[in-house]
Automatic annotation (TrEMBL):
One cellular-component annotation, GO: plasma membrane
Record organism: Erpetoichthys calabaricus (Rope fish)
One Pfam family from the record: 7tm_4
Membrane topology: Multi-pass membrane protein
Protein name: Olfactory receptor
Length: 316
């Protein structure tokens, strides 16, 4: 028998209505805030021609990615929390899996591209305008998106070779690769190792390049004056915060699946936060640490909206 639908279980330990209501409220507010702050960044960049530079084009691309990444999973999660509709069609589930893997790969590549941009800006400031033109950075951004979506094709293709004829319950809040693959009928060991190797490669190759780039940046910064040094560290500090946030959250998910005795709910929450926390914090980091963005009146109004949302959470 071939499965046509999967059942998304959600949090096994939070199946009562009160818990579902709390989860729904929390993730709804988080999702709305993700949309608000990232759309705000995109609007600011589009409206201000002074921000049409390679660095801000990368930030804008990351904002678009954060919107798409959270939209791929959060709305379906909200429907899971507020209703009893747990059934997900086979094609829809694998589409969500593919997009999640693809978007995660794109984020790794964009973070690596940001490190490349800062490396050129700090190490070769006189050549930066000729090397990092807007047209070139747009091409590199496009390559990152295309490459990111090509990366999971093999892993997903290998999973689709298996028949799905047994259990159909996914113990997760969305269709992630490992939760779907274990439901396949057949020996999935080789496929699991291939997918793991590809995933670690996509994660660590950009990370190694980022570490190498910042080692070069630090050596270059130590050679300049103290005033220029502070400005360089301030510029790179924002990017380092965004990088650290992404890789620490990803490492947390990986560790939660490797520690024996970790509850299923903790593992699910770690995976869910991977879709929510970086998209929520990235624009806040850029708003707080980037002078050109911080001085916009629209950003000042954002904090008023944030206070309203925080107050509404308290009332819940």
């Amino acid at each position: 028998m071939f499965l046509f639908n999967f059942i998304i279980v959600g949090f096994p330990g939070f199946q009562d209505q009160e818990s579902k209501k709390t989860l729904f409220t929390f993730f709804l507010i988080a999702y709305l805030f993700i949309l608000l702050v990232n759309l705000m960044l995109i609007f600011i960049f589009a409206a201000d021609r002074n921000l049409h530079t390679p660095m801000y084009l990368l930030v804008c691309s990351l904002a678009i990615l954060d919107i798409v990444l959270s939209t791929n999973t959060v709305p379906r999660m909200l429907a899971l929390f507020i209703s009893d509709s747990r059934s997900t069609p086979f094609v829809t589930c694998f589409t969500q899996t593919y997009f999640f893997l693809g978007l995660s790969s794109v984020e790794c590549f964009l973070l690596g591209l940001m490190a490349y941009d800062r490396h050129i800006a700090i190490s070769k400031p006189l050549h930066y305008p000729s090397i990092m033109t807007n047209s070139r950075i747009l091409k590199l951004i496009i390559y990152s998106w295309v490459g990111g979506f090509l990366c999971p094709a093999i892993a997903v293709g290998l999973a689709l070779r298996f028949p799905f004829c047994g259990p159909n319950k996914i113990t997760q809040c969305f269709c992630d690769y490992s939760s779907v693959l274990i439901l396949a009928c057949g020996d999935i060991m080789v496929t699991s190792y291939v997918a793991l190797a590809m995933g670690l490669s996509i994660l660590f190759i950009p990370l190694i390049y980022i570490i190498f780039s910042y080692a070069k940046i630090i050596m270059s910064v130590l050679k300049i004056s103290s005033a220029g040094r502070m400005k360089a560290f301030s510029t790179c500090g924002t990017h380092l915060l965004v990088i650290s946030l992404y890789f620490f959250v990803t490492a947390g998910v990986f560790i939660s699946y490797r520690i024996p005795g970790t509850s299923v709910d903790v593992r699910i929450m770690a995976a869910v936060l991977q879709n929510v926390f970086p998209p929520l914090m990235n624009p806040i980091i850029y708003c707080l640490r980037t002078k050109e963005i911080r001085e916009k009146s629209f950003v000042r109004n954002l904090w008023k909206i944030r206070n309203i949302l925080t107050h509404s959470i308290t009332l819940q």
